[in-house]
Design brief:
This protein is mainly alpha-helical. 69% of the residues lie in helices and 0% in strands.
Length: 151
């Protein structure tokens, strides 16, 4: 049971999770401002502005650098992990979302008229634009620097 206590007292982890949650909550006012509607689902959906994944991993990497040292192997591992996650968010997952959009369009055009298609539409917003990833990563670094007193 002590191991669980150690995990919840890990300040770097707590700050990284907080950065992720803050980024996720910020999606609501951003969507309200850009789309003109309140979307509470943004709290649990992937994609959107800012990238919560990017905020999470950059806050983690920054926290590791702040606590263990910028020249440490742990910081290097955290940075490589962050780069992979952000690349995936802006590259692979965004490409999958574009493919879903095209497939949905094909289904819509094919099944116009008397055809019936009962399957759910594919989710189109899976990834992030590079700008959303950059904003998320800036947010993560900023939150970690602000929370430095917790370390």
């Amino acid at each position: 049971m002590q191991d669980f206590g150690d995990i919840i007292h890990n300040q770097v982890l707590v700050v990284a999770i907080a950065a992720c949650l803050i980024a996720q909550v910020l999606k609501i006012p951003v969507e309200l401002g850009t789309q003109g509607k309140l979307n509470i689902r943004a709290l649990v959906e992937t994609g959107g502005m800012p990238s919560a994944h990017s905020a999470f991993v950059t806050a983690l990497a920054t926290g590791v650098g702040q606590t263990v040292g910028w020249a440490s192997s742990e910081f290097a591992i955290a940075v490589v992990f962050a780069i992979i996650v952000m690349y995936d968010a802006a590259g692979v997952r965004q490409a999958a979302g574009k493919q879903a959009r095209v497939l949905n369009q094909i289904i819509d055009e094919f099944f116009q008229g008397e055809h019936q298609f009962t399957e759910m539409r594919l989710k189109e917003l899976l990834g992030h634009t590079p700008f959303q990833v950059i904003v998320g990563s800036i947010l993560g670094v900023a939150i970690s620097w602000i929370a430095e007193i917790a370390y």
